[in-house]
């Protein structure tokens, strides 16, 4: 055996923390589904990306690769189940704490928990596999109709039925329609192997690379029904020289070949296999020791508050999941990115001083809320209420919390997206929101609080930003039964923020803190399940922005007769309104979590040097507190145990205090910069004091601007009507789509009596109609056009037949056979240039065949007194 280092000189090895390309070429139809259906149309849908094209979840491929890697490990460990290679499987693909935390004593007995162990994170970071970016971009650049046809061509429908075990015939009420992605598609993604103990860019351990490459060679099918011929595929990894370069899919390259076709010797894999006997244990190569928290000194609180240094724009490249609770088997998500999930990314950009800055309350990363028209949105104050009878489908931002505009939306895509802009459609009449902190006359209207986030509309009102959510079904497959079971975890659903959502947060740092913006400005992984299908984001570092909504106004003075006496005599007394921009965590004397507004007043009083108390409630007084509480659960991954629950006042809560004394302006600014309460570095405790938004008795709710960024998704981007320069796969999908469309259109147009009379005379005999049908079917074969032209010429030479058909009809038939553009006038549609010329003979044949069929059907359905005319047509379609 050679030196293990010698394998680095053969082929292209994988490097730590650097992306490598993994590609899956499907050699048959494939069914990687969503677990959902479209009522009345499809019983099982395939997985689609945000562009409406088929995709393969990284989680699904990683699971299949793990199963293959376990098979490889059994062989390399000579049948042992706990050898060196099994340890490498756990290092590369991660441990399975959910599967290993339970065991059965005997069959039929209840499960009992096993001792907990620290989970091993996966070194393999997977991403969803999609069609190549060039193909997706070319399809997105088409006009609306071509784009829909290309997307439809990427999937096909398969009917199915269950067979009765006793009668051996179709069982009753079991007919179904299933979607499958088309054969010949190739999906790709950039994955990476990352070992924390190795420098970035260094070659990964050869044992890990061998395991991954060998597993890829063993995978020959993926997805549903793969044991019945669906999902046959070939998996290749960058640097793998096991197959020849891909042929053009339009030529059918590889469609009839098996998974092993074209796979020759792979020098890289062979060189790795030569080192099998010298395999090392993972502990000898990769350090798994956790960093010692005591090695990082804690920071002391600085006298100078942090400065709003940057805004971070976060674009979701895949769905984002930040769990806020569980209902049944569904994991619900927050509709914002918590600062807790962003802080580790910022800490890495700060480098060594990060721990001292964070523990010293000198770093603040706010929650990332949805961006509306280039501005970060803020939670709507609970003091703003809307009329209860406002229609949530016509007024933006008045939908009850948790309810989505389209409950049918799954996986971020829906067919109706081609006809709408995918968002809420605003009403022309703005809604007036009532500010309950201001006195108002009782008008009998029933009100309910607003939800969501808002931005200023530039004209004194606010505009609501809604976050699109998607639901994606997953399943844990039991190794023994090869299907989801209760013991393995079964079926579960993730609710997530939709891909393409743009969010924005604020970053507050000391003025002299060094931040690696070059590293921060790029792609990162955040949130739950970020090692595969979720949490992939693009971060853009921006200049700090300002919000008009949080601009502070002078505290309202209280007269002796009530709340609205702004010109009171006592200038030392006034009102202070506190608007919570994020959840607020406060602790009592014994460390207990408190949600009493009086505790908020006490904490603020200590910070700004005044006395804050809640006003005495009175029948004519506005409410003094409009608050709600919120409970946050989290998980300690290293310990495999839940963290203590966090209970506090929820974002959007509003409290009105009676203030005695004059606040220090510098203290007010410091509180707005550093926050109030605990865990402020993670975005908790953000407050706005005396915000200008709550100065008015009513606030106008504006409709969304139709010219906002992104425009109407149903409008073409470029209106491209030519296939020149398009990738071969995009052209093939467009060609398939137009073949379907022309076939459908021909059947619809043939139902027109006027169109049939343009090609078929009423006096035509059954023999003549049968001849025309035969010639129409031959238009796509060699010499078919010439046969049609020869028949037309023979008909012209025969005076009786010429009189029957007429010179105009024969001219139109000759024009169709010659490739004239009049065909598209008859069909009322026209494919893009390049495809139109190619499909012209087939489309002409389909049109003439449908015209003859419709004419025969029309004659057969004549009244009962015309039986001879119908009888002579009996042999036309026999």
Summarize the structure.
Helix content is 26%, strand content 19%.
**Percent helix among the residues?**
25-40%
Overall pLDDT level: 81
What amount of the residues lies in strands?
15-25%
Structural class given helices, strands, pairing? alpha+beta
End-to-end separation: 73 Å
Shape: globular
Regarding quaternary structure, how should these chains be classified?
A: single chain
Low-confidence stretches: 6-11, 100-113, 240-262, 404-427, 559-572, 706-720, 867-878
User: Treating each run of at least 4 consecutive H or I residues as one helix, how many helices?
Assistant: 22
* Structural Rg: 34 Å
> Describe the biggest sheet?
7 strands, antiparallel
- Tally the beta strands: 38
Any overview of this molecule?
This protein has 878 residues and is α+β, with helices and mostly antiparallel strands. It is 26% helix and 19% strand. Strands 9, 12, 13, 14, 23, 24 and 25 form a 7-stranded antiparallel beta sheet that branches. Strand 28 (586-587) and strand 29 (593-594) form a beta hairpin. Mean pLDDT is 81; it is low at 6-11, 100-113, 240-262, 404-427, 559-572, 706-720 and 867-878.
């Amino acid at each position: 055996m050679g030196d293990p280092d010698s394998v680095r000189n053969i082929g292209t090895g994988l490097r730590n923390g650097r992306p490598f390309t993994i590609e899956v070429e499907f050699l048959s139809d494939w069914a990687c589904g969503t677990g959902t259906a479209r009522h009345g149309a499809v019983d099982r849908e395939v997985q689609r990306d945000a562009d409406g094209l088929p995709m393969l979840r990284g989680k699904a491929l990683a699971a299949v690769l793990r199963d293959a890697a376990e098979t490889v490990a059994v062989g390399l460990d000579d049948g042992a189940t706990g050898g060196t290679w099994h340890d490498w499987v756990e290092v590369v693909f991660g441990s399975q704490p959910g599967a290993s935390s339970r065991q059965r004593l005997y069959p039929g007995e209840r499960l009992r928990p096993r001792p907990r162990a620290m989970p091993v994170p996966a070194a393999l970071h997977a991403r969803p596999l999609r069609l190549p970016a060039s193909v997706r971009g070319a399809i997105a650049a088409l006009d609306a109709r071509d784009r829909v046809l290309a997307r439809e061509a990427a999937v096909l429908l398969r009917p199915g039925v269950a067979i009765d075990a006793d009668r051996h015939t179709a069982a009753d009420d079991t007919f179904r329609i299933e979607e499958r992605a088309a054969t010949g598609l190739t999906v790709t993604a950039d994955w990476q192997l990352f070992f924390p103990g190795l420098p970035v860019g260094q070659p990964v351990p050869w044992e890990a690379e061998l395991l991954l490459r060998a597993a890829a060679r063993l995978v020959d099918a993926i997805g549903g029904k793969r044991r019945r011929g669906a999902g046959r595929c070939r998996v290749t990894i960058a640097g793998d020289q096991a197959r020849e370069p891909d042929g053009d899919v339009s030529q059918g390259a590889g469609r009839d070949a098996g998974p092993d076709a074209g796979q020759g010797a792979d020098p890289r894999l062979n060189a790795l296999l030569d080192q099998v006997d010298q395999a090392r244990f993972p502990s000898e190569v990769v350090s798994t020791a956790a960093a010692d928290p005591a090695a990082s000194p804690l920071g002391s609180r600085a006298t100078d508050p942090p400065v709003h240094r940057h805004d971070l724009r976060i674009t979701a490249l895949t769905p984002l999941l930040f769990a806020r609770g569980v209902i049944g088997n569904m994991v619900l998500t927050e509709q914002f990115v918590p600062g807790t999930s962003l802080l580790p990314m910022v800490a890495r950009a700060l480098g060594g001083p990060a721990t001292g800055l964070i523990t010293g309350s000198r770093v603040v990363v706010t929650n990332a809320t949805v961006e509306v028209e280039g501005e970060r949105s803020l939670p709507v104050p609970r003091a703003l209420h809307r009329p209860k009878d406002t229609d949530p489908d016509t007024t933006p931002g008045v939908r009850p919390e948790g309810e989505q505009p389209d409950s049918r939306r799954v996986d971020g895509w829906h067919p109706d997206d081609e006809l709408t802009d995918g968002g809420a459609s605003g009403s022309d009449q703005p809604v007036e929101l009532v500010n309950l902190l201001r006195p108002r006359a009782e008008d009998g209207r029933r009100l309910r609080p607003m939800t969501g986030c808002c931005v200023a509309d530039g004209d004194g009102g606010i505009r609501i930003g809604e976050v699109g959510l998607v639901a994606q079904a997953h399943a844990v497959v039991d190794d023994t039964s090869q299907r989801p079971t209760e013991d393995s975890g079964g079926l579960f659903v993730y609710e997530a923020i939709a891909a393409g959502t743009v969010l924005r947060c604020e970053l507050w740092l000391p003025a002299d803190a060094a931040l690696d913006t070059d590293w921060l400005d790029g792609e990162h992984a955040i949130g739950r399940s970020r090692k595969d299908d979720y949490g992939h984001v693009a971060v853009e570092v921006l200049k700090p922005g300002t919000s008009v909504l949080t601009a502070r106004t002078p505290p309202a003075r209280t007269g002796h007769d009530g709340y609205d006496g702004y010109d009171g005599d006592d200038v030392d007394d006034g009102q202070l309104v506190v608007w919570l921009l994020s959840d607020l965590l406060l602790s009592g004397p014994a460390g207990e979590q408190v949600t009493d507004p009086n505790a908020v007043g006490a904490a603020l009083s200590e910070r700004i040097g005044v006395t804050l108390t809640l006003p005495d409630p009175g029948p004519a007084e506005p409410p003094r507190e409009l608050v709600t509480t919120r409970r946050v659960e989290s998980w300690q991954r290293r310990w495999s145990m839940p963290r203590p629950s966090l209970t506090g006042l929820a974002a959007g809560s509003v409290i009105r205090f009676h203030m005695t004394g004059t606040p220090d302006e510098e203290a007010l600014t410091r509180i707005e910069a550093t926050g109030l309460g605990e865990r402020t570095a993670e975005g908790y405790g953000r407050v706005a004091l005396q915000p200008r938004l709550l100065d008015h008795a009513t606030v106008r709710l504006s409709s969304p601007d139709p010219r906002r960024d992104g425009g109407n998704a149903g409008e073409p981007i470029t209106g491209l009507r030519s296939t020149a320069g398009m990738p071969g796969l995009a052209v093939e999908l467009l060609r398939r789509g137009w073949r379907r469309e022309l076939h459908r259109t021909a059947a619809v147009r043939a139902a027109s009596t006027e169109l049939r009379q343009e090609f078929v005379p009423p006096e035509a005999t059954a023999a003549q109609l049968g001849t025309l049908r035969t010639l129409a079917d031959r238009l796509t074969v060699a010499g078919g056009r010439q046969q049609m032209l020869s028949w037309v010429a023979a008909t012209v030479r025969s005076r009786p037949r010429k009189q029957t058909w007429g010179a105009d009809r024969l001219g139109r038939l000759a024009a169709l056979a010659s490739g004239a553009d009049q065909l598209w006038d008859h069909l009322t549609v026209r494919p893009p240039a390049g495809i139109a010329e190619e499909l012209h003979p087939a489309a002409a044949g389909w049109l003439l065949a449908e015209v003859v069929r419709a004419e025969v059907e029309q004659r057969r359905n004549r009244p009962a007194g015309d039986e001879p005319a119908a009888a002579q047509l009996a042999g036309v379609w026999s």
